[in-house]
Amino acid sequence: MNNEKYTTYTLENFLDDDAFIKWVSGKEQDVLVAQFWSEFPVQYPSAADNFNFAVNVIRTYRSQEIWENKDNKAHLLDRITATIAAEESRRPGIFRRMNVWVRAAAIALIATAGGYLIYSKLNRPHMEMIATGYGEKRTITLPDHSVVTLNATSSISFQEKWDTIAPREVWIEGEAFFDVKHLNRDTTNVRPGQRFLVHSNGLTIEVLGTSFNVRSRHGKTKVGLVTGKIQVGFKEGPAAPKAVVMLPGDYIEYADNHLLLTKKINKPESIKRWIQVPLTFTDATLGEIIETLQDNYGYTVKVSEQSIKKLKIEGDINVANVEELLTVITTTLNVRIEQPSEKELIIASGK
Amino acid sequence: MQSESHVLWWNAFKQGDWDAFTALYGEFYELLNNYGRKFTQDADLIQDVVHDLFVRLWTTRARLGNPASVKNYLYKALRSTLFRKIQSLSKFVELDNASGQGTFAVNFIPDASFRQEEQELRNQVIALVNTLPARQQEIIFLRFYEGMSYEEISVIMDINMSSTYKLLYKALDNLHKVSDKRFLTFLSIMIFLFGNFSKKIPVTEG
């Protein structure tokens, strides 16, 4: 296996040798080839110094940070899956499964519909609307690559294409968590296209590069900020509250043109826990839990007396499904729960 | 280089096999993140790019060919997706490297376990690499870290072979100077210690 050329191999020859590079970076699968290179300094002592130096240089270079971001691996696959599902539902694959005759008929129909679409597109910008059903959650990537997670029975609307002149605007019903792409750092000189506005039930959240949660149900809107900074403006009117600038941990509740509550929350991260955990509560009253069962899961819940809605479960609840949640309620509170049908619950005080 | 399972997964995925698609994701997620990290420190941006890359893979699967190396194909796709994204984002966002193909950097791990002599070489190599322009650093990374051939590098970076050589030789030249300096130091110590002791000189021309 001796080869004359190796006896005078220079450093540059080594660094230029694809086979040597492959071996020294640990990519050589062939045992014989690997053996050849490990025995090289013995086989070709005249080139051993250059060999060793080349190996040293490359191994030195290779002692570098490996950044794999494993923590986000599963979450990102969920996001990819959600985006693909959304795109495929927009262009259903039913067409391919039709037989030739049905297809011919379908083409005629699509042509007409397409003509209408082109016509309407020329006239007004296309609005995208995405909604979730009971018990469903969805992650959406906006045109500027900001990410929104929608909770159950919620919807988001926005223009399909965003240009750089107009502000970015979205409309929310229900609950959503926003992770907005960084905006410009010079807050004294914000161009219109760098503005990001979230409209929800009479209030407008102006985002300054951040992540926050908005929950708008039964005419009441709750906003909690996790990172960054936002400004919340309210629908104009004689008694309208003044715009509020929120900092991380700030939490507000708003309804009927009134600011009902402003407070600091200890663990701002907890307001977005619903993204990971199906059912999550902190120091929740039975009334709040019932609201979630109705809003997010479509249950009809009756109570024997209104006062039991004020019963509170201290601490955190993190459960995977409604069944577990009901077990937590009956074991911690002095109530019993009957389930006359799948989506019906009756809660009464006493065991 | 091309592993058999990569080819199997690739072919199955093109036929619409979702499990093969997620197998490819599982196989290359870490490598793509690591490569992407060299262009930007923005972890969210890298996640977005990997997201876009896999979404596009799936939606265009019927039109995809059979790359000689799935890994290299994905590297090339990551690169172009990332550059495009940085460019389009720069309309909305002020990025550190809005010019697009701006930066490429590796983070060297501080390691006290190196012997002093190695430490010296190490410092020189790091200092040299850090002075190189982004594209030369990328070639070094693909060559010395990923162990790729010149041909593979030129395909991924979309530059022709001669310019690949040119860029690399520039970098190697600099490396050479470092090595020369080190050997001169080494030799002068030897000569000092052993007087007229003659030793073959490993330094090459250039």
Q: What is the architecture of the largest domain in chain B at the second tier of CATH?
A: Orthogonal Bundle
Report the largest inter-chain contact.
Answer: A-B, 52 and 56 residues
Poorly predicted residue ranges of chain B = 95-100, 190-206
Order of helical and strand elements of chain B: HHHHHHHH
CATH class of the largest domain in chain A: Mainly Beta
Kindly estimate the percentage of residues of chain A that lie in beta strands according to DSSP.
Answer: 25-35%
Largest sheet data of chain B: none
The secondary-structure element order of chain A is: HHHHHHHHEEEEEEEEEEEEEEHEEHEE
In percent, how helical is the residue content of chain B? Answer: 55-70%
Subunit arrangement of the protein: heterodimer
| Broad structural category of chain A | alpha+beta
**Are there runs of chain A of 5+ residues with pLDDT below 50, and where?**
92-124
Percentage of helical residues of chain A?
Answer: 25-40%
Task: Please write the CATH class name of the largest domain in chain B.
Answer: Mainly Alpha
Supply Rg of chain A: 30 Å
Q: Give the helix tally of chain A.
A: 10
Question: What integer is the average pLDDT of chain B?
Answer: 77
List the helices and strands and how they pair.
The complex is a heterodimer of chains A (351) and B (206).
Chain A: H1 11-16, H2 18-24, H3 31-38, H4 40-43, H5 48-62, H6 73-90, H7 94-97, H8 100-123, E1 127-131, E2 138-141, E3 147-150, E4 155-159, E5 168-179, E6 196-200, E7 203-207, E8 211-217, E9 220-227, E10 230-234, E11 244-246, E12 250-255, E13 258-264, E14 279-285, H9 286-297, E15 300-303, E16 312-319, H10 322-332, E17 335-341, E18 344-349
Parallel strand pairs in A: 5-6, 15-18
Antiparallel strand pairs in A: 1-4, 2-3, 3-5, 4-5, 5-8, 6-7, 7-10, 8-9, 9-12, 10-11, 12-13, 14-16, 17-18
Chain B: H1 4-14, H2 18-39, H3 43-59, H4 70-89, H5 116-131, H6 134-145, H7 150-157, H8 161-194
